Amino acid sequence: MNGLKRLLLASAISAGCLQGAWAIGAYPHPIVMRQPDGTTLLVRIQGDENYHFVTTADGFLLQKDKSGFFCYVDYDMRTGKRVPTRQRAHNMDERTDEEKQTLAHLTAAQTMNADFLKRHAITRKAPAKTISPRIVAPRHVMGKNAKVRESQYLVILVNFTDSVMRHANSDFDHWLNEPGYSVNGGTGSVKDYWRDNSMGQFIPNFKVVGPYTLSKPTAYYGQNYGDSGTDINPRDMVSEALALAKENNPDLDFSQFDNDGDGEMDNCYVIYAGYSEASTANVNDIWPHSWNFTTADVYGNIPDMPEYDGVKVNNYSCSAELVGMPGSPAVPSMDGIGTFTHEFGHVLGLKDMYDTDSYTNGNALDPGAYSLYASGSYNNSSNTPPCLMAFERMQLGWMKEGEDIIELKEPEDVTLDNISANKARFINAQPGRADGTGMEWFILENRQQTGWDKYIPAHGLLITHYDYTKEMQEKWWDNNGPNNVAQHRCMYIVPADGIDDSNSRSGDTYPGSSANTEFTDTSTPAAINWNNEKLGVPVTNINEGDGLVHFQVSGGASKWSTVKTLVPEDVKDATATFRADIDNAGDAKAVEVGFCWALSSDTKEPRLGDKATMSKATDNASTSSVTVDGLMPGVEYGVRAYMKLADGTTTYGSTVPFTTECKTAVVDIDHPFTDDFTSWTNGQPDCWKIVDNNSDGTTWIADESSNSIVYSFNYWNDADDYLICRRRIHVPEHGTLFFTRGVSEQTAIENLEVLVSTKSSDLKDFHVHERLSFADYFYQQHMEEVDLSQYAGQDIYLAFRCCSDKMQGDLWLWDVMVTDKLQTPTITKFERNADGGLHVEWTPVEGAAGAPGYNSPYYLYFGKETDEVNQVAEFTPMSAYEESVGNVALYNGGLFFTGNGSVTLKDYPEGIDRCMFIVTTSGPLGSSTLSVEGTTDGSTWQMVGPKTVCKEYDADGQEVDLTSYLTGKHYRRLRFTFQHGGRNARVKYLSLVYNDGKVYKDLAAGGVNNNYIDINPTTEGEFDTGKYKVWVASGWYGLYYDESVPAYYEASATSIGDGVKGTGVTLASGADGLHVSGVKKGYTVTATSAAGVEFFRATADGSDIVIPAGHSRGFAVISVSGEGHSWHTKTFIQ
Question: Is the separation of the CB atoms in 239 and 249 below 8 Å?
Fold first, then answer.
């Protein structure tokens, strides 16, 4: 393996000469920006120094206008140019209708970035060279006894003409050099970090000078170039800073900063006054980075290298003085050491582990807070960057193969110390590679939440997979992009829980929360290399205790008596069943087996006899499970199995964390279950569990701008992401789920499933209860309703699953509620009263209630018919499909044919004016056809437009617009017929435009305290003409349920009804009774009282049918039937 050592060191020395992107990634969380008018906007900063951009929390590209307001930006896909708009940006819940219309036509930021990066070469800043291993790792290069001396580095503090330092030179000297530096909760100084992580082999000392005021304002140095966002003149800042440092310190010998004697200062670090663009999104601020004086800038210029005291300055790094942004925090605070440490590590040769080219080749998942070179530089507000990983220590020569990091191969019992002790193990995944051609390794390191690792997501054995083969090194590592390809990351964490996404980082370690104690050829995840070859080096019996990790390799060197704590089962709000695998391979007999547990907040390792620990033994020593009660709901515990042996020793298993369910919600009308996704812990909403089922890294996340949870745009994969409620809900008689949702993309359909389990909150126990598709109420909150009454009297678990297609927009969820739904009232009177007004009565509803002075038990709508036709444009809802035959799946706005089939739409009495859709094709071969027919009478069908032929794979699809074939035809129904010839077809975005009666003008709406109301005219005789409509809904303290069937009043009528819709039949009063007109000859007309008693029946002979006055008074149902169909309407007879 000596060839590997040479390859690693050669890479560390020379990689800086290749133009990789060496910069810190953007702050990983949304930030609140204050606009010039005092309003706030939540934004996300994305990218790094070489290419970055700002978006709203829901993904729309932003740019500041001349007044300093963030405005939306569009993108011209033809020219590849950004096109700023004049529309100022607002948070989602504050947008006007005009703003929403603007958003409907914008190109999504992800689409723009993918196209932009294909068109434009990005200038990537990088050091020209890295510090010599002779300085960084003298013991490695020159032997064990090599003298380690402190190497010297220059740090210059600078002001701008418009921004000055808020902290003194001494503050930065402590920050950089002071042992045990602890300001703002810090874990140590920069010098502490590198001394600790190099095991004393590299001890930097920082000479701090300044601050000095540069000649120009911040914007001169930090202004962004074009659309890439790279700063235009940062090297001028460094040149001026060097000149001022020498001018003010003529006796300071700059040659001392050339630690390796090669004639160049190893690095010059500039800390500038103010904030970083990585956290402010201000285009005039400077983005922290590392660069050099020998690479062309965005204009093609290469400046002369500054020279002082016989040494030239080539490499430099820079970062900001302050953390956050103006006004947040309220008192400006020094940035933590994370950014400085990250940038300084680049000078040593370390690579970024985040995806440095964003959406090119997919958006790759990185190791997150476990790595200084992902988001770990931000741990503890940048005050506690995590330990360097084993491979990084190897690259720098601080971890020696065969001594500090040892190969796993032969049977062995391993005790692995903390990575802070500079120990690790590895499995060679390609043992046959020749020296000098690189390697593929799985590295095993022990990460504990102590010291520099205090703020990593979890503790235990962390397994990482590295592809450092020579071909991958040349293609990606040397260009600072080891994780730039989503489908082949050159460094990734092998997650113990099998879930590879950023929300589940706490499940990455072994045994961890998944109680996974094996990494073998057949485990999940499996030990398989990139060539899909098994490693043949099984790691088993992984255990953790007292900060150490123990495991056996290839069966181990001895027989272990093992106690494996398994993941608890049947965890409820107060009970759980603990389980263990017991293997007593020793000579001493087991005399007791049991479990001890404690709140995780009290102790990480429960032990018998501890005050904070509870315990319970099993019934006998051969039993390995026990059920406990008395647990607290909604909190995290740690449980640990134990085995007492006859020789007096006690063997413990690893601690497995588990969280009890939240308290069971027993629902009734006065006690609904509600939640709003605003409280989160460890990347999960409280009492809910996110499952990224396809492990693509895109899943549900918190959206602080709208106080919601959102599944955001996925450029690459269809969604398969669950949101599971970890609480049992006892369903009442009329149990109903209500939730508020929102969607963004007007050309897309978002699909959401509501799932129910009557067993547990495990994914396997859920079944689909209802599938919904959303293509309306864009950028608005809209409430959906799902009937749960079939589960009345049962305890259930609820879950949502986003299953939208890739390239769709965003899907938000806000408030969720399960309640005992009130019944719908029935209007019994709508008539003129003695005062010339209108009187409305309805049936009272049990349970309807309101808070006096705030809301009422009923809500009433009152409107008047206008002459305007009510034209409806919609993606076909599920209710539009009347009949389907054959191999076809139905969903909102679409059909999916996998064989012969047909779908008939419902009747549209006033005719269909427009029909449009897209047909995509899949399947291996052949030719299929899709035809559309229309009918005006329900029996005679005619072709509408030409057939659509599907004869080749077509993921983009054919656009079909049948409008010209529908014009003037008055087709009331359409039928889609598919002849399958080998190709499948999906009809997407199926939209219709049709007329549905007249538009009603809103006259009044509001709460009503009784089950009746008199509506007074605003002018004398107002109700003598026109047609009026009312409906009413029952409510509970401001939440109103289904509206009633509308009732209508016409000035010439003495009865009310909703007409016999769809038949042409009308009702009108006359002196002799109720006239039923327009009934076809041979049709039957009946009238039934509210009690269900039929009091009239007649067969039409072609003329009006008259229901004589006096037969009945009050509420009645009028029915018309014939030719196998029936229609009904309700009326009120005086």
Answer: no
Helix spans in 15-87 (H): none
Strand partners, 545: 548
Convert the pLDDT of each residue in 252-267 to its tens digit: 999 999 988 889 998 8
Contact 906, 994 (CB under 8 A): no
Determine the residue type at 800: F
DSSP letters for 300-345: S--PPPPEETTEEE--EEEEESBSSBTTBSSS--B--SHHHHHHHH
Quick one: pLDDT band at residue 1055, thresholds 50, 70, 90? very low
DSSP-derived 3-state class of residue 382: helix
Residue 899 — very low, low, confident or very high, per pLDDT cuts 50/70/90? very high
Please, are residues 1072 and 1109 in contact by the beta-carbon 8 Å criterion?
yes
Helix then strand then coil, % of the chain, to nearest 5: 15, 40, 45
Separation between Cα atoms, residue 571 and residue 689, nearest integer Å: 14
Least trusted range by pLDDT, from 13-22, 111-120, 1030-1039: 13-22
Token look-up 């963030």 returns: 70
Q: Token pair of 819, please?
A: 């309640």
Mapping DSSP to helix (H, G, I), strand (E, B) and coil, where does residue 796 land? strand
Among 87, 39, 97, CA closest to 63: 87
Cβ atoms 809, 829 nearer than 8 A? no
Instruction: Report the distance separating Cα 530 and Cα 429, nearest Å.
Output: 9
Contact of 842 with 826, CB cutoff 8 Å: yes
Cis peptide before 386 (omega within 30 of 0): no
The pLDDT score that the predictor gives to residue 270 is 95
Beta-bridge partner residues of 323:
none
Cα of 1132 vs its chain's centroid, Å: 53
Burial 903-917 (b: 16+ CB within 10 A, else e): bbbeebebbbbbbeb
Under CATH, which architecture does the 1052-1134 domain have?
Answer: Sandwich (2.60)
Q: For 245, phi and psi rounded to 5 degrees?
A: -65, -40
Amino acid in the structure at residue 812: W
Residues in the chain: 1134
Token reading at 445: 């390191």
Domain ranges of the chain: 31-119, 126-348, 368-553, 582-652, 665-820, 872-995, 1052-1134
CATH of segment(s) 872-995: 2.60.120.260
- Amino acid at position 40, single letter: T
Here the contacts of 585-591 (C-beta below 8 Å, separation 24 or greater) are 585/559, 585/560, 585/561, 586/559, 586/561, 586/645, 588/561, 588/645, 588/646, 588/647, 588/649, 589/621, 589/645, 589/646, 590/621, 590/622, 590/643, 590/644, 590/645, 590/646, 591/621, 591/644, 591/645, 591/646
Q: Exposed/middle/buried for 87, CB within 10 Å: 0-12, 13-18, 19+? A: buried
Q: Which of 870, 959, 960, 969 is nearest to 912 (CA)?
A: 969
Given a contact cutoff of 8 angstroms between Cβ atoms, the answer to whether 1055 and 1132 are in contact is yes
CA separation for the pair 880, 987 (Å, rounded): 15
**Contact between residue 484 and residue 472 where contact means Cβ atoms under 8 Å apart:** no
- DSSP structural state of residue 163: B
Q: Are 270 and 238 in contact (CB under 8 A)?
A: yes
Tell me the three state secondary structure of residue 94.
Answer: helix
493 pLDDT more than 90: yes
What DSSP state is assigned to residue 1076? E
Of 746 and 1084, the one with more pLDDT: 1084
Distances from the Cα of 1049 to the Cα of 837, 1089, 1107, 1134, angstroms: 11, 20, 19, 13
Whose CA is closest to 252, among 344, 153, 131, 136?
Answer: 153
> 665-820 with 872-995: one CATH topology?
yes
pLDDT score for 20: 34
CATH class of the region 665-820: mainly beta
Question: What is the CB-side half-sphere exposure of residue 850 using CA atoms within 13 A?
Answer: 20
Cβ(901)–Cβ(885) under 8 Å?
A: yes
- Alpha-carbon distance values, 222 to 166, 343, 730 (Å): 19, 17, 59
d(CA 171, CA 134): 31
- For residue 192, the model assigns a pLDDT of 97
